[in-house]
Amino acid sequence: MTTQTRPSCFRRFSAFKAIILCLLAGLFSTAFAEDWDGSTSKPSSKEIDGVEYYVITSPEEMAWFAYQVNTNGNTSINAVLNNDIYYVDDSTTAASRATPVIGNVSNKFNGIFDGNGHAIYGVNSSSLFDYCRPNFILKNLAIKSGKTTYGFVRLNHGKIENCVNYAVVQGASAIAHDNYGVIESCVNRATFTTDSSFGGITYVNWESGTVKNSQSFFDFCEKKQFVLYGNAKIGGIAAQNRGLISSSISEICFPKLKNSEYNSSDFRRIGGIAAENIGGAQSMNIENAVVEKSQSNVRIYSIESISSTSTVSAEFYFGGIAGKSGGTVKESQSVFYIDSIYIGNNLNNNFYIGGLVGFASCGLLGNKDYGFIEQSYSELSIDVINAQPSNKMTPFLIGGLVGKTQYEKIENNHSVLNTPFENFIANFVSASSYYWIKSAGLIRENTKSLVKNSYAIINNRSADLAKYLKFAGIAYTNDSASTISNSYYNIDFIGEDTKPIQIDSSSFTVNVSDKTTAVMQSPAFVATLNTNAGLDDDSGLWQYCEGNYPILVSEGSCEEFYSKYGLSSSSQSSSSGAESSSTSAPVVSSSSATESSSSEIESCSSSEIASNSSSSLGDEVSSSSMI
Question: Fewest CB within 10 A of the end CB: N or C in the chain?
Fold first, then answer.
């Protein structure tokens, strides 16, 4: 019997075909791997700079690592990602089963986890890490999809750096819920689904905590409305800051901001950087509550107060940097734009609205130490107020810089208050009812505070409305325990009958008056601000800008500052000045910052999300269209 042999060329083709099929099978098994089934697998390890790391390449190896920490108590082991981790096939959804959380209350993680510029997809857990100790380091990692409650870390005593969250957050923070350590060069791009209290980077930045060089972006404007409940605290960087927030940026956009019914004496706070910037309630150490060198841009399309016959009071604190502050705000800038305010009937509450801080108060629990606002700039714009006829119980305390102060030192600041009210809708039956809507260039209500070396610009488009909506150049009310000195406002853009202070009970008001645009844009005015009108040595804090208003040295060059904020020049009339100022610094809209952000997300590879240096975050900051 003879054996037939296939031609050698056919055998070679079959072998080649088999190789191709095997390669394709491997490719598709990698791209379309089944969802993680909960199993574990021990990873390989290697030494990096003398430190041993487990090299994580799969969900199974992530689970093994978590088991070693949580169950076996190996809390100081280290890991580095070798590639992106997918818990699910679909990179846009969360895993169906709970994904591993590293560390717990019994075994707090104290090692290093280096994302190595990679991303995790499909997270489904409260956080990636639970309790973490001082030697803990998390770096160079992104969560690209899934859902969390606390973001990356529930409680951080270590350091988190170069991390970005794009996932859905169902809780209160995108990076760390409680921060006692350091968060540096991190970005919040997450989608928050809660209507209660939250912070973009951390919920509470405690006394020992630091957040620096970080960014947070919120865009709720695609929603029909956003409802505030109970004692809501919403902060671009932190809901509550008791530590240090430095060199950080936040952008927030709200649609209709609707208030729920009040169940008690509620306090609702919104701040571009922190809803509250207040030291610990027990120690009242205001030195530990600092926001510095930070910028925010906040837009609210409308604020709608409910109509209620309830006698329960509520307080609302809205500020470009902080809703409420008893600590320090310095060398910071904010742009705060409100399209419209609707005032319902018979409301028993107060609104404190400030371009920088809504309510600046250090006089808590009888403490008489001062909080500080210094070397900062704010711009507050309000277009429309719709007031119902029977409303006489809802005072709006509107200040270009601060709504209300109490035990504060406010020095070397400048503000712009744009109150065009072009489409003002008022149904009041008498002019006296307008009593409740009063505003001032710097501070609406100054209580037990010191104000010095500052100036304000008020842009009011309607001379007729000035009869009813009372303005003050510097402060509307100034109590007997307060001092205001060497502070000025521009008379060219507001009625000549405007007073620097409408109700002044203090005998310590010195060098407080109006100035023309020409005077305020002169070198002599810079000298006035720097020397306390000749009473002190030259501080050198203010600088001259030719053809424009003086700015602080800490705000960079004149060109840099006015390219961001573009205030009106001496060649503009009061009308054009208001329009220029209110539109010069772009504000968040549903189609601006967030859409540009989404395009950045799409174009970024996982290795670009978290680099080994903070320079990539700096590039993102400088490319922002908002600040």
Answer: N
Q: Quick one: pLDDT at residue 387?
A: 63
The residue type at 331: E
Residue 59 phi/psi, 5° resolution? -60, -35
**CA angle (30 as vertex; 24, 32 as ends), nearest 5:** 95
Which value, to the nearest 10 degrees, does the dihedral of the CA atoms of residues 342, 333, 414, 534 take?
160
5 by Cβ neighbours in 10 Å (0-12 / 13-18 / 19+) ranks as: exposed
Whether residue 141 contacts residue 119, with contact meaning beta carbons closer than 8 Å, is answered with yes
DSSP, collapsed to helix, strand or coil, labels residue 530 as helix
pLDDT tens by residue, 594-612: 333 333 333 333 333 333 3
- Taken as a whole, the chain contains a residue count of 627
* Apex 311 CA angle, 307 and 313, nearest 5: 85
- Terminal CA-CA length for the chain: 88
Cβ–Cβ contacts within 10 Å for residue 564, how many?
18
Residue type, 431: A
Could you give the CA distance from residue 161 to residue 145 in angstroms, rounded to a whole number?
19
Closest CA to 500 of 491, 513, 509, 487: 513
Residues 6 or more apart whose Cβ sits within 8 Å of residue 43: 54, 55, 56, 57, 61, 64, 65, 79
Cβ 410 vs Cβ 443: under 8 Å: yes
CA distances from 562 to 130, 157, 249, 582, 625 (A): 44, 40, 18, 13, 15
Residue type, 520: M
